[in-house]
Design brief:
about 130 residues, mainly alpha, two-stranded antiparallel ribbon, 4 helices
């Protein structure tokens, strides 16, 4: 006697937009990890005095392309993460639950302010 095995659908996530966004968000984790590794390599180069070698590595076209894809993937990952926060976090004020748009708005506003502060110092050159 053989057991029944249902046929596998390898494109199951393409059936609904929410499934597709979920899978894309999970795949962006690879690029988030690359961004972390790249920043750790930069920090190591600064601390060990091998910044010139790191700059030569970072100027390679494939590294630039990978970092651009990583930037887009990390931004997508961040936005989807911040949009999920109201489902995972319940904030109550005087017994009333805050609406989702207020939590999302606060998260996105904090992200923009922190990004602007970092951009200010980076573009200014830490003078």
């Amino acid at each position: 006697m053989t057991t029944y095995r249902a046929p596998r659908d390898f494109a199951w996530f393409l059936r609904r937009r929410t499934y597709t966004v979920f899978v894309l968000r999970e795949l962006t984790s690879v690029f988030v990890a690359w961004t972390v590794v790249f920043l750790l390599l930069l920090a190591d180069a600064v601390l060990s005095g091998t910044l010139a070698d790191f700059e030569a590595f970072a100027r390679q076209p494939w590294v630039i392309a990978l970092n651009l894809v990583g930037l887009v993937a990390t931004a997508f990952h961040s936005v989807t993460f911040l949009n999920l926060a109201p489902k995972a976090t319940v904030v109550r004020l005087d017994g009333y639950r805050l609406p989702a748009w207020m939590i999302q708005g606060g998260n996105h506003s904090a992200w923009l302010v922190i990004s602007a502060i970092i951009a200010f110092f980076v573009l200014r050159g830490f003078r």
